[in-house]
Amino acid sequence: MFTLSLILIGTACFVATTPIANDPFTIVSSDVSPSSRLISFDKSVDKILSFWTDDKLKAAKSVMPIRKINSQTTTKTEMPNNGPRVLVDGTMGSLQKAAISAAVNPDKASSRQVFASTGRQTYTTGKIFWNNTGNSYGMCSGAIVTSNNKETIVTAGHCCFDHDTNKFRISQNFIFIPDYKSGAQPYGKWAARTMTAYTAWTVNQNFNYDVCFVNLYTNSKGQHIQDLLGAEGIASNYPRNAITYSFGYPYNLAQGEIMQYCSGSAAASKYGNGYTGQTIPCDMTGGCSGGPWIQNFTASTGNGYITSLNSFLITTIPNYMNGPYFESNIWSLYQKCMV
Ligand SMILES: *[C@@H]1O[C@H](CO)[C@@H](O)[C@H](O)[C@H]1NC(C)=O
Ligand SMILES: *[C@@H]1O[C@H](CO)[C@@H](O)[C@H](O)[C@H]1NC(C)=O
Predict the structure, then answer these.
(1) Integer Cα distance of 89 and 235 in angstroms
(2) How far is Cα 306 from Cα 246, in angstroms, rounded to an integer?
(3) At the topology level of CATH, where does 10-337 sit?
(4) Which of 169, 173, 174, 189 to probe ligand 1 with, by most ligand atoms within 8 A of CB?
(5) How far does the centroid of ligand 1 lie from the alpha carbon of residue 55, in Å?
(6) Ligand nearest to the CA of 294
(7) What sections of the chain are H helices per DSSP?
(8) pLDDT in tens, 142-153
(9) Domain coordinates of the chain in residue numbers?
């Protein structure tokens, strides 16, 4: 069903070099000339991967925003969906095995633990790392989503774009390590090739668009990550207030060394001021940023649809995670990056 050019990926992640002020839906990318970039692994990619020693990985710190409530009231902002419901199914990877345990974990409010079943989410979710100045390192979480180019992951905008420097972190040894576990990297490290977000995030810091799609290089054998590990499905304008699973690597639990999860019913966030995102009961904190929210999640297979991600906490509402609602604009961004 999916085809791709093995050599050039000139159309991926369309770039606007001069964002139009005040248009929040200008797509911006880290890559100034995507058509000149090879998909394939080369020496520069090898350099990015070998930058990461175990000590550097362990030293990485999380970056999750903690916001003060942004409205005078706790009135819920419930915006109508802004387009058709669209979805793409997850895909199977050649290394993805059937789930080891079909145990169904409870949909308990605030439930949080290591998920019992090693389904698709184990292969597709991973840890993200980059370097900052002064030998300090950052970390987030992210997940592979089904794409034609077989190399697309989704994470939070605040993981890709640094508002202090006003730059994407593309030149900061940005990598993805799927199924990271206490230093183990069973499927290796994967370097970022491009990262793309809306000016709604990069310029306006609008948390409705705290979303970034990252395209990865192949590994040294020229293999695409999705071919090996599969991908989760993704959906937009999906039902609100539904049972949602969230995965990620929060620093408050096992120092971010092990993938954790939360699950529960999503509800409208109380952040206010036009925030259309949802909130789920969850005691994960920084480090799980960018980790996927999956609806219609089947515990025995790990299959489902990514409909949001871990974005921010609110100071006065502990144990609730907020995430942007994937609607038509986010779907358009995905469509640009998945080709
Ligand atoms: C990250 O590390 C590279 C070396 O690989 C270095 O050139 C770069 O300056 C570092 N980035 C920052 C922001 O310090
Ligand atoms: C998702 O789950 C709901 C019920 O929870 C069901 O009605 C719907 O058909 C499911 N969607 C898909 C694509 O499986």
Answers:
(1) 9
(2) 9
(3) Thrombin, subunit H (2.40.10)
(4) 173
(5) 16
(6) 2
(7) 43-51, 54-59, 120-124, 157-160, 199-202, 225-229, 328-337
(8) 999 999 999 999
(9) 10-337
